[in-house]
Amino acid sequence: MKKKLSLLLGLLLAGCTAADVSSAVSYVDDDYRNTYEIFVYSFNDTNGDGIGDLNGVREKLDYIQDTGFNAIWLMPICPSPTYHKYDVTDYYGIDPQYGTMEDFDTLCKECHKRNIRVMTDLVLNHTSSQHPWFVDALQKKEASPYFDYYNFAYEYHEGYTERNGIYYECRFWEEMPDLNLDSEELREEIKKIMAFWIEHGVDGFRLDAVTSFYTGSDEQNIAFLQWLCNAGKGIKEDLTFVGEAWTSQSKYATYYKSGIDSLFDFAYSGFNGIIHDTVMGVYGADDYISALVKEEELYASYNKDFVNAPFYTNHDMARSAGFYAGEDGMAKAKIAGALNLLMTGNAFVYYGEEIGMRGSLKDENYRAPMYWSSQENCVGPLDMDEFDMMYPPYDEQAEDSNSIYRYYQKMLKTRLQYPAIARGRTVPVLHLCEEEYGAFERICDGYDSVLIAINLSNEAETISLSGLNYSKLAETILTTEEEISLNGETLVLPGYSVAILTK
């Protein structure tokens, strides 16, 4: 039996004072983007060593722009001893595997010429155990100027490990010592780090593991986020922050109290998220639409200026194409992508999702080389398994009007063409919200409103638009060769399709 998602989310809202979202959401154009998450290591290699590099990203900017993205998020690019680079050894440098600071400067300049904003990972929960700060602190202890940068103790605590006669906190891994974010000296260092990257062209930061800054204390995490956002915006007024708070929606919603621009919307992501369960029929179209309304109210109750950060998968999750098998597997993979991109805010897409790449079981597989063609470009992480992709490479999909790539491209460009999709508030058309199909308006001050109709079944659905005053079929997002039709006030939606209508 289908779960009632609206009831479940209603419980999440208990105790919250929902704001009037119609007047609460601010509309700042640069905050509402289509953002492409790039793992540089596996994206595009230009020097023949099998490892992606910054020049490889620059080489693909035409692709990124033509696909419909106007922002990129680069996973960590600072020097690091690991392939994933979330254990930084120098916050002021570029990992030699990726290139030079000059390469980064050139990339940023080329992005800005195309109105593509650049976001980089800012990892503040921990450093590498090989970072000079930690090496010096471990050796000299209290005599080191960096001793206060970390959480040291002379007796064992949970989550600590011992080295050189002293214990240090390392919740993720013993080679990732946790930083002491109460240190005033460290906070001054963090401001210098942000200023450095802003000077080199960075427009925003993705903040790793914001729920782990202070172990077991959401209030301290929120307070630090508030300090960090204020400090960053004091350097660059339009700097944007998006935080990774991988926890329940009811909890990460409270992190909007910090004033952070955006938080990743984990409730919708992954194999057990709302998007997947809606496509699989666990929830209905009516539940999906109801959930959008309730989360907008929830987030606005903590910060009226929130900008949601919807995503479907990322580098820590199995890729979504593998979720769907059978004859309608491709159609489901496509409509799942649409459900992500029909959400409000700054939408994120992980590289390779737009061509239906697969990868499961472990992190290295999630970060396989971008499948540009059948000819290998990057070799991928060392411990990655060998496996075949479900769908053809980009160069073949680009020639196929019915490919997953062309579907994502159409959806991304539609999102840019109709600003209310990303910026507006969701208003359900209640008499058109059923299990199999649904319709809702996106209403936004200063932009033309749109009506979005979705069919989540594999059968055609006929709905009446009587009294809605949306007479123009502006865009059709299709998973098959069947067409959407609008005859007068009668809209016919083929299986797994989306219609965008305007007045």
Keywords:
503 residues, alpha/beta, disordered N terminus, 16 helices, 7-stranded parallel beta sheet, globular, 17% strand
Question: How would you describe this protein?
Answer:
The chain has 503 residues and is of the alpha/beta class. Helices cover 29% and strands 17% of the residues. It has 16 helices and 18 strands. It has helices at 5-12, 21-24, 54-59, 61-67, 101-113, 132-140, 184-199, 218-235, 249-252, 274-279, 285-302, 329-341, 363-366, 394-397, 404-417, 420-423, and strands at residues 34-38, 71-74, 117-122, 152-153, 160-163, 166-169, 204-207, 240-243, 262-263, 347-350, 425-428, 437-444, 447-455, 461-464, 472-477, 485-487, 490-493, 497-502. The strands form 4 sheets. It has a 7-stranded parallel beta sheet with strand order 9-8-7-3-2-1-10. Strands 11-12-13-18-15 form a 5-stranded antiparallel beta sheet. Strands 4-6-5 form a 3-stranded antiparallel beta sheet, with no helix packed on it. Strand 16 (485-487) and strand 17 (490-493) form a beta hairpin. The protein is globular. The chain starts with a helix and ends with a strand.
Structural class: alpha/beta
* Tally of separate helices: 16
Largest sheet report: 7 strands, parallel
Strand content: 15-25%
Q: Let me know the average pLDDT.
A: 93
Oligomer kind? single chain
Spatial shape: globular
Low-confidence stretches: 1-28
Short description:
By secondary structure, the protein is of the alpha/beta class. The protein is built from 16 helices and 18 strands.
